Structure formats: structure tokens, C-alpha cells
Amino acid sequence: MPIVMARDLEETASSSEDEEVVSQEDHPCIMWTGGCRRIPVLVFHAEAILTKDNNMRVIGERYHLSYKIVRTDSRLVRSILTAHGFHEVHPSSTEYNLMWTGSHLKPFLLRTLSEAQKVNHFPRSYELTRKDRLYKNIIRMQHTHGFKAFHILPQTFLLPAEYAEFCNSYSKDRGPWIVKPVASSRGRGVYLINNPNQISLEENILVSRYINNPLLIDDFKFDVRLYVLVTSYDPLVIYLYEEGLARFATVRYDQGAKNIRNQFMHLTNYSVNKKSGDYVSCDDPEVEDYGNKWSMSAMLRYLKQEGRDTTALMAHVEDLIIKTIISAELAIATACKTFVPHRSSCFELYGFDVLIDSTLKPWLLEVNLSPSLACDAPLDLKIKASMISDMFTVVGFVCQDPAQRASARPIYPTFESSRRNPFQKPQVTLTQFLPSFTSRGSCIANLG
């Protein structure tokens, strides 16, 4: 699958430039695209951060590629970019190829992006990453396309607005229920209740039916962190990374009411369980099925050995991902057309947290803005360094000095050249993103 749609060069390069192109033709960090295969695009390699091979830096340094990091601190992103010849510029600089930020950009900043500049967030992506907005978008899709088609969230209520409805449901099923702040992450402010009187209504919160039949491995509850890349909302293009993380609770699961306050039993967030005295880490990156954090592939191998249909499970997970993103597609695509001058300017890495129940049904827990790239264990580095490198390759950084302004003819299609009816039934492709760009599978979301 092509990384970018590129134009032919407007002018023939000089003889000296031709010699340079030939010398770079077989460089492992460059890919040539465009009608005449004359537009260089950078290829990233995760091993570059370990080998510190100067040859990996040559292309980035040759084109003076640069980045800036704003309102966040990601040592992994910085290490990968530096290993490929990028240099860091001041957060206020306007000459950069990539802005990596921990929050959304203001509209006036989005409008200033040149066609060679990229930022790691779409406008209005909070439609997915804020729990209240995600809930409302999923509910809207259930009303439009049927409850069964979008039954990917457990029954949920937004309080205090829907307190009466919640109490009515509680009278029929006393729970337990799980309470979550609408705009928090890493398990902060999350707790279980079995009585409405235990809820504080001082702020907006979500109350969801607790999934009390989770799939267990060795009697421990776990969830799965999946990495999902969106490179465009019009057309909608979604990539699912081939690897993820299974994160385990540190106390064996027990449905008894006396354990309702035990976060180490009921919550699977790493940021919660790492504080437990029972947390077990693994220092060997090649051992992926030991301790409280496994690779997703190790978890799937275990389930397959237990006779579970992991192929069907992952098909349902992909369906969940597609439907979740479709629920916010129109809002985000409209914001892009309003504020973003070039279709290639934005991309987004989402962290999907999914819980699997004992029937192998996946449930969406939340979608994370700026999922953690911390590497607290060797397995983290192994998975996340490869994932970020593959993501940057898929996103497609054209090798262009950011100090040089783009010509009048665009390298990428603009939104104006690719508008479609916003009410048109979306055709969505979801593939696993890999260094070779080979499609490992695709599916179409049919809403009926």
C-alpha cells in the first residue's frame, strides 16, 4: 500500500543531483515514490536506536530533517528520530518536519502547517478519547444502525444527567458497576460500586455495567492494549499494529462483594498494578509470557493452545476498532476540512484498551490519546520501538528541508481535490502496519 500520493518532479535534476540520487538509491533508510520514483521518503528502523549506526543518520542529516516536542516528553520518539538524523528545534520554531505534541493543536496553528509538516493529532480526536464523547457517539450509532451492530460498550450512563435512568437500571440489576471520570487516564478516579449512594455527583462521570465474567488466564483478569494508527479521515484509513500488550491484574479474580474495593484485582492498568507488592516484571525481552505484562501474540498463543478460536476473536476486535472510529469519523473529517490545509498534515496513534469476556466477546474500555510510550521493561522497548518506527514509515516523511517552502503544485492531494459526500456509506480498510507495507488482512465495515 503506498505511503503517500506524490507528484512528479517539476524540473529535471542537475547532473550532480542525479549522481547523488544514484548513490542513495539502495540506502536502507530511503524509499523512492512518485510517478518517476524521484521523491525520497524516509524509512525507519527500530534497531537504529541500539546500533547507533551513523549510516542510518545520513539521509535525515542530508535533508536537514527536524522535529519539535511540545507539551510532552517522549524519550522513545526522540531517540528514534535522532537515530535517523533528525535534529530537535525549539518548541516555538516554525521550521520542522514533525511536531510531536501531547495535546491538540489550536486551529490557527493547524492552518499554518505546510505540506511537508506533520503533527501527531487530528482536530477533534477527543470525540474518541474523551469517555463522555465516545459514549455519546457510540449511542448515536446504535440509534442509527441498530443496537446489536454497535454493541461494543457495556451499558453506560452519563451522570448526573442520566442519574434517574441509571437508578432504574440498578433496581433491575444491582451490579456491580464501575465509575470513571470522563477525562482521566491510567485508572485515576476509577472505582467499583454496588449502590448508587456510593457515587459522588460533584463532577461528570460515567457509570458502566461491570463485566463480571472476564476471560481469565491462571485466574487473573487482563485487558489488551492495541495500537491503532489513522493516517486519514477522508478517506478513512486505519492501520492496526501486529503486536500489542496484555496487562494483568496482580490479585486473582474473585466475584465476591467483599473484594469490590480491591483495585489490584479489578483494574488492569499498568499504572495501578505496578504499585502492588505482587507485581512481577520480566527482564528478558524474548520471554513474552511471564509476569504481569505479556505480548498480545503470547496471549493469543496461550488461548489457541487452550482450544480458543483466536482468529474469530481478532476479527471481532478489528470490527470493534472500525466501528469505534467510524462513530467519530464525520466530526473529525469535518474539522480537518475546516482547519487543516493539507490532507497529509495529521496522523494519530490511538491506544485501544479492550477487555475480553469468557465468551470471547471483546468490549471497548476506552481509547487513549497519546498512549504511553514509556519503556519500563525490555518487552515495552521491543514492541514500542518497532511500532513507532513502523508508524513513522507508514506516515511517510518526504525528505525535504523544512526551511524550503513547498512549490505551488502540491506533493499531496488537498481536501478540495478529494471531497466526498459526508453522508456516503464509508468504505473502510483496516490493515496491520508493517515495515514491508504488505497487507496482512483487510475488512470492510458493513453497517447494514
TrEMBL record:
Listed GO CC annotations: ciliary basal body; microtubule
Any one of the GO BP annotations: microtubule cytoskeleton organization
Gene3D superfamilies for the chain: ATP-grasp fold, B domain
Key words of the record: ATP-binding, Ligase, Magnesium, Microtubule, Nucleotide-binding
A Pfam family hit: TTL
Needed cofactors: Mg(2+)
Signal peptide: none
Gene Ontology molecular functions: ATP binding; tubulin binding; tubulin-glutamic acid ligase activity
Reaction catalyzed: L-glutamyl-[protein] + L-glutamate + ATP = gamma-L-glutamyl-L-glutamyl-[protein] + ADP + phosphate + H(+)
Family matches, as PROSITE patterns: TTL (PS51221)
Highest rank taxon of the organism: Eukaryota
Similarity field: Belongs to the tubulin--tyrosine ligase family.
Protein name: Tubulin--tyrosine ligase-like protein 5
Species the sequence originates in: Saimiri boliviensis boliviensis (Bolivian squirrel monkey)
Chain's gene name: TTLL5
